[in-house]
Amino acid sequence: MHTVTKAIEVEVPVSVAYNQWTQFESFPRFMSGVEDVRQIDDATLHFSTKISGVKREYNARITEQVPDTVISWESLDQPRNAGSVRFDALGPDRSGVSVTLEWEPETLTEKAGAALSADEMQVAADLDKFKDFIEDRQRETGAWRGTVGGAAADGSGPVRRDAAEGGTMPGTPLEGGAMEDGAPNI
């Protein structure tokens, strides 16, 4: 496995940075190579990617999700990858976002790119795009404040919804039922 770790500071509160990252379907707006992300359930995502001309589809499972702290995942099939995004409050309107990505380069091009640190440069560029995206907006496009990982306090399972936040599924619009462009969510 090859590991990449990159971090960036963003000029938004930690809850805004974290909430935006829970909107997995918005990833194509700031992640190169990610063409589409579809939320299957609270802890499962379907990715469509095209990187260096290679198109792939795979499912990933969220293994840990703690509001304003961390989101971790692992792929369920090929290509093998796993990682985490950590969030740190650096002040009332400033946050640290740190990405650690582990992946298994498969093709000769991927292996060469990893050896030349192309993957590190791509993760850094994607974090820069996230920074621009969230700082330009100054608010998230939606939020999910539930917890994934471990057993719920009542022993009922690995996903807990935060009733104070409505417990909506990741990818659900935040702003009064309106989509990001202001159109009603019908």
From TrEMBL:
Where does the Coenzyme Q-binding protein COQ10 START domain lie? Answer: 10-119
Check the record and name the SUPFAM superfamilies matching this protein.
Bet v1-like (SSF55961)
Annotated region Disordered: where? 141-186
One family name in Pfam for this protein: Polyketide_cyc
Q: What is this protein called?
A: SRPBCC family protein
| Organism listed in the record | Arthrobacter terricola
